[in-house]
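Case 199 in the screening queue. Each case pairs one protein sequence with one candidate compound; here the compound is coenzyme A. For every case the pipeline is the same: read the inputs, emit a complex structure as tokens, and attach any notable structural observations.

Predict complex for case 199.
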Amino acid sequence: MTIDPLVTERLILRHPLDAADGTVLRQAGTEALALEFTRIFADPEESRYMHFVPYPYSRKDADGFVNFLEQRADYPGQVELGLYLKSEPERVVGMVSLESIDDSARSAELGYWLRRESWGLGLMSEAASALVAWGFRTLELQRLEAWVSGGNERSLGTLRGLGFRDEGVLRRAAMVKGVLRDRIVLGLLREEWEAKAQA
Ligand SMILES: CC(C)(COP(=O)(O)OP(=O)(O)OC[C@H]1O[C@@H](n2cnc3c(N)ncnc32)[C@H](O)[C@@H]1OP(=O)(O)O)[C@@H](O)C(=O)NCCC(=O)NCCS
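Case 199 output:
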């Protein structure tokens, strides 16, 4: 699903195939996007804990991801937003998403990544917090969950900072870049988010 851009203190969150001026990117724009994805995922640390992102990451992988974003842009069960620094509004620095949006359970899954040179600045906390608030307010969700590979302490820190609680561990459930890792699930209920927002 395509939504209006979300604006935070330092970031604009918009669908990566919408240009900064709101028009849909044409071929030159999608090529620049694929090049940026290729550059970001050339760093093995970026996808170390993500089983669904290949490494080495080729231009073909990036083109496939851009195609996926194009095809899924109007899909109702998913929101994909690129992160753009207000100071550099044309260049994607990460993504945050809501997937598996379930209308009857009013739940969804949060996912995200950020280019490595921007880690440690609180940018994902800022971006994810805006999308979480949007999900609870606009989609009237009652639950969000996120799945993290064991060892991904940065991501666990981001989620716990947002108020997510540890809910369970599937032990050695995923093969990630040749390493068997636990799958940890964290959840955030609507009332917990409301209590945190009011605190
Ligand atoms: C997971 C990931 C997004 C976390 O990035 P991050 O920059 O650490 O995340 P946050 O935005 O929560 O920032 C927290 C860091 O910013 C610092 N920070 C600075 N200002 C801050 C602020 N205003 N608010 C929160 N944190 C702030 C924190 O101290 C912390 O730094 P530290 O870990 O050095 O102590 C990033 O590591 C990543 O993209 N990894 C690869 C992809 C991935 O694994 N995705 C998740 C799959 S489940």
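Case 199 observations:
- The chain has five helices and eight strands.
- The pocket of coenzyme A is lined by residues 46, 49-50, 112-114, 119-125, 148, 152, 154-155, 157-158, 161 (CB under 6 Å).
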